[in-house]
């Protein structure tokens, strides 16, 4: 039970404090290593499954190792100075409430972060119930046309949006009867879908018709793939580069809420 609270806490109780600290450090290194591996290798369900098995296996090993050490000394163990409730509490507070959150925050800020998709604005590329991994490295914060990005919603910084970059700084964007034009030429968009046949005039709203606009330097024009159901740059403007948090990498889990079933075919899928 102590090991479940914090890796190494059970070993501290069983008289193996150094071993416990080493296992805690290994766990934190695994968190960082898994994050890097998730960015590089989880493009299929098998690679993702391997990471999960290794993580669960390490946790089980720590539990049984602590139990083994405790049982070996249960009849002749003499309490050490560190076998006190306040030492256990301090260990938990420093490592579980101090070090672990710092490592987790560092991973989410600089390596990879998980997001759950709540809307259909990017369907069918990314669907409601998809859980995605986002590359937070600096190289992913300078996207090109066609890239999917997570960014801070310019109107409300408390919200993160997922959209596709359709134009970068210096490009001229125009929409005519749902058709996107970049620098005067029709954009090739095999991922874009339109589920509604009606055409809305520009005077009413800019969903289907938008006058030419030049994207400012170090900014992006973004749109959802589900063009008739996406609230994006057509309505609220450009995304400054400093608002970009990362690029979408792949799907690590997908749940179809309507059917109450796992979308197995989407797990590990690279998002393009």
Topology summary:
Blueprint: H1 2-5, H2 9-13, H3 17-41, H4 45-72, H5 85-110, E1 112-116, E2 130-135, E3 148-152, E4 160-168, E5 172-176, E6 179-182, E7 185-186, E8 210-214, E9 219-223, H6 233-236, E10 239-240, E11 244-256, E12 261-262
Antiparallel strand pairs: 1-2, 2-11, 3-4, 3-11, 4-9, 5-6, 5-8, 6-7, 9-10, 11-12
Provide a concise account of the structure shown.
This protein has 272 residues and is of the alpha+beta class. The protein has 6 helices and 12 strands.
The helical percent reads 25-40%
Name the poorly predicted regions: none
- In this structure, how is the largest beta sheet organized? 8 strands, antiparallel
How would you name the oligomeric state of the polypeptide chains in this document? Answer: single chain
Shape assignment: elongated
Q: How many helical stretches?
A: 6
| Mean pLDDT reading | 92
Radius of gyration: 25 Å
Q: How are helices and strands ordered from N to C?
A: HHHHHEEEEEEEEEHEEE
Percent of sequence in beta strands: 15-25%
E-strand count: 12
Describe the protein:
- The protein is an alpha+beta fold.
- It has 6 helices and 12 strands.
- Helix content is 34%, strand content 23%.
- A hairpin with a 2-residue loop joins strand 6 and strand 7.
- The longest helix has 28 residues.
- It starts with a helix and ends in a 10-residue tail after the last strand.
């Amino acid at each position: 039970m102590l090991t479940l609270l914090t890796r190494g806490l059970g070993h501290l109780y069983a008289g193996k404090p150094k071993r416990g600290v080493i296992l805690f450090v290994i766990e934190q290194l695994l968190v960082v290593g898994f994050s890097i591996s998730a960015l590089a290798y989880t493009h299929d369900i098998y690679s993702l499954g391997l990471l999960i098995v290794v993580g669960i296996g390490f946790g089980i090993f720590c539990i049984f190792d602590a139990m083994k050490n405790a049982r070996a000394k249960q009849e002749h163990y003499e309490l050490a100075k560190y076998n006190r409730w306040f030492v256990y509490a301090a260990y938990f507070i420093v490592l579980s409430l101090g070090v672990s959150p710092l490592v987790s925050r560092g991973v989410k800020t600089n390596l990879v972060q998980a997001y759950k998709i709540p809307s259909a604005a990017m369907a069918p590329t990314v669907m409601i119930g998809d859980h995605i991994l986002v590359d937070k490295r600096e190289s992913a914060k300078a996207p090109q046309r066609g890239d999917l990005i997570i960014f801070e919603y310019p109107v409300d910084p408390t919200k993160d949006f997922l959209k596709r970059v359709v134009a970068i700084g210096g490009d001229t964007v125009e929409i005519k009867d749902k058709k996107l034009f970049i620098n005067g030429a029709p954009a090739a968009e095999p991922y874009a879908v339109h589920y509604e046949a009606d055409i809305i005039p520009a005077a009413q709203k800019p969903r289907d018709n938008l006058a030419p606009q030049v994207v400012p330097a170090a900014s992006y024009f973004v749109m959802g793939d589900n063009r008739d159901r996406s609230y994006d740059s057509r309505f609220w403007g450009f995304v400054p580069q400093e608002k970009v948090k990362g690029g979408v990498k792949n799907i690590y889990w997908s749940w179809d809420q309507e059917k109450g079933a796992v979308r197995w075919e989407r797990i590990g899928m690279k998002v393009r």
